[in-house]
Design goal:
Structural class: alpha/beta
Shape: globular
Strand content: 15-25%
Mean pLDDT: 93
Bound molecules: 5'-O-[(S)-ethoxy(hydroxy)phosphoryl]adenosine
Helix content: 25-40%
Number of domains: 3
């Protein structure tokens, strides 16, 4: 069957776009490729405020990069202060909607005041440049306020997703050695209160390094406040002024650390710095989302993940757009919540995940049909490959057939979008993230680092440093080198496989390491396994991702219990809940399969490939000669899938 024709950008769209043709894209790409330093240097000067200019654009001692060396700047200044002398001063910076339906519109000027006031609160508690904060909050305006206040003073923040457990929160507080935790009494999710302060209390009980905990009021549930350590957000604010100049920070000052799953049990603290991150967050808003002054932009992610950092908070505010922020669950109180929000605020650009789209498909197109979605002009997708059926549905029922879809590939590590169509230029092939952005030297290679020919499959890599790249892993340079820079010589190994088709389009195929992608959330096999074996009944566990219609992948855990333990439903439920406690509810395995032994090589390595085959096909093929105990496979394969 011949491949369907690519979708060309609508004519009207191309006419007004930041990049309006493939020729224009290719020219930009070539310029950047020929002289990356000149390319990024020019943009950094033109797009951002610098207190002091840099002396050297790039200092690259592989794998360690520094961008705009010697330059000083401030993210909070670039997101706020510089807009206040323009027509943007009374423009909505954030339109917020809470799950119960309460709303707030915050202008740039008002946001500036709130950020300055909260920065003064942090200052008064003794925090300053170089301090570290943990932010564990619901999706309420205080969350970006806290981030921007930290950025204003040079306090490195780490936002922890509100779905994480006390145990996961504790690990992050300790690893970052944070002295302050900023949280809220609770947040709303599916009509219920998520008790964030209670979880924080549990975590802080084992974190003596935490000197202060600031608590915003959201749900007004009963909470405990420990005298001397815990403070009420508004009481502190009442004591300070709303004037607070932005601190001049080195371009390489660490803006934030965001923990993400890796191939071992310990989460990795991805470190992003200031100058380079700012630049690419800013440029991707213009190139990929084609931002216009009058746009209302909605990235429906959670700020607890990198997508929310770059495309709810920093990117949108850098370019002075209006960013929509929604607190709650997508189908609450009814499956049309998203479409209601788009209609109500006349959203122009929607950025969401394939998992969400597949869930909406299941709910039915009668829900979007109830609302006027004609304000939309552009759609985006992120987090996992988008299957063509979901692409088509999104295009037709949400985009009304008129909106281009930008399928954006990137990672926590890359800081900003790396591979994506440009909506006014790139002919779209549903399921392909298409081409790299200017300045991003993407390649598809074999294990030796050689480019595979067009039409071939291989590992996705990035060959040259880019401004928004992560600089290291917090406190672990050796792991940074080993995980990302040593697998394939001389390049950044992203951990995904990809195919480049005959037209040069890139198709990301998914992870090649032991990282799973469940509903767009990264989970590591090792992290889940170490959580399971901590349970007193468990002897051994092996976790794999199984293809799942709705969530992309689902977690299946093979568990061997200690002698005398019962392999019944009650135990399976207890183990699922246990993972909820150890990591977070979102990480609970969909299936627990009990087995009396796990398939292993002679050297004792669990053969996950075989387990994967068992759950997908119930049969095992290929080479199993290294297996220690063949009978294990037969027993596992004979088990009935519970679904
Ligand atoms: C996957 C999220 C295919 C990929 C921004 C990557 C994608 C991981 C896409 C990073 C896409 C993200 N197409 N796969 N458009 N976007 N991925 O760190 O496996 O949470 O390595 O960052 O998600 O996930 P992370």
């Amino acid at each position: 069957m011949p491949a369907p024709k690519p979708h060309k950008p609508p004519k009207g769209f191309a006419k007004n776009a930041t990049v309006g043709s493939m020729a224009a894209y290719e020219k930009l790409y070539e310029q950047a490729d020929r002289n990356p330093e000149a390319f990024w240097g020019k943009l950094a000067k033109q797009e951002l405020h610098w207190f002091k200019p840099w002396k050297k654009t790039l200092d690259w001692k592989a794998p360690f990069a520094k961008w705009f060396v010697g330059g000083t700047t401030n993210m909070s200044y670039n997101c706020l202060d510089r807009h206040l002398t323009t027509a943007r001063k009374n423009k909505a910076a954030i339109i917020w909607e809470g799950e119960p339906g309460d709303t707030e519109t915050i202008t740039y000027q008002e946001l500036h005041r709130r950020v300055c006031r909260f920065a003064n609160v942090l200052k008064k508690l003794g925090l300053r440049k170089g301090s570290r904060s943990i932010i564990y909050m619901p999706m309420i305006p205080e969350l970006p306020v806290a981030m921007l206040a930290c950025a204003r003073l040079g306090i490195t923040h780490s936002v922890v997703f509100g779905g994480f457990s006390a145990e996961a929160l504790k690990t992050r507080i300790i690893d970052l050695d944070a002295t302050v935790v900023i949280t809220a009494d609770g947040g709303w999710r599916r009509g219920k209160i998520v008790p964030l302060k209670a979880t924080t209390d549990e975590a802080m009980a084992e974190c003596p390094g935490v000197k202060h905990c600031i608590v915003a009021r959201r749900t007004n549930n009963d909470i405990k406040m420990k005298k001397g350590r815990d403070h009420d957000w508004s009481a502190l604010e009442a004591e300070v002024s709303d004037v607070c100049p932005a601190v001049e920070l080195d371009s390489e000052h660490p803006l934030y650390v965001l923990y993400t799953s890796g191939t071992t049990g310990k989460p990795k603290g991805i470190v992003h710095t200031t100058g380079g991150y700012q630049l690419q967050a800013n440029m991707s808003m213009k190139w990929v989302f084609d931002i216009k002054e009058e746009d209302t932009f909605w990235c429906a992610a959670d700020i607890g993940w990198v997508t929310g950092h770059s495309y709810i908070v920093y990117g949108p505010l850098l370019v002075g757009t209006t960013t929509v922020m929604y607190e709650g669950a997508p189908a609450h109180p009814e499956p049309d919540r998203f479409w209601r929000i788009i209609d109500k605020y006349k959203v122009n650009i929607l950025y969401t995940s394939p998992t969400a789209i597949r869930a909406f498909i299941r709910m039915g197109e009668q829900w979007p049909k109830k609302h006027d979605l004609s304000s939309l002009r552009l759609l985006g997708s992120v987090g996992e490959p988008i299957n063509p059926a979901a692409w088509d549905w999104y295009h037709e029922f949400i985009g009304g057939g008129r909106c281009p879809i930008v399928d954006t590939w990137w990672q926590t590590e890359t800081g900003s979008i790396m591979i994506s169509p440009l909506p006014g230029a790139t002919p779209l092939k549903p399921g392909s993230a298409t081409f790299p952005l200017p300045g991003v030297a993407v390649d598809v290679v074999d294990m030796a680092g050689n480019s595979v020919p067009k039409g071939g499959e291989g590992y996705l890599v990035i060959r040259k440093p880019w401004p928004s790249m992560f600089r290291t892993l917090w406190g672990d340079k050796a792991r940074f080198k080993k995980t990302y820079w040593s697998q394939i010589p001389g390049v950044y190994f992203v951990g995904d496989a990809a195919r480049r088709d005959k037209d040069g389009y890139i198709w990301v195929l998914g992870r090649v390491d032991d990282v799973m992608n469940v509903s767009g959330h990264r989970l590591s096999t090792a992290e889940l396994e170490s959580a399971l074996v901590k349970h007193k009944a468990v002897a051994e566990a092996a976790v794999i991702g199984k293809p799942h219609e709705l969530t992309g992948q689902a977690v299946v855990a093979f568990v061997t219990l200690k002698q005398g333990q019962k392999t019944d439903d009650a135990m399976a439920n207890a183990l699922r809940d246990w993972v909820g406690v150890e990591i977070g509810k979102f990480a609970r395995p969909e299936q627990i399969r009990f087995t009396d032994a796990l398939p292993k090589t002679r050297s004792g390595k669990i053969m996950r490939r075989l387990l994967r085959e068992i759950v997908t096909s119930d049969k095992v093929s290929g080479d199993i000669t290294t297996l220690e105990d063949l009978s294990v496979i037969n027993r596992l394969a004979g088990q009935q899938d519970e679904e």
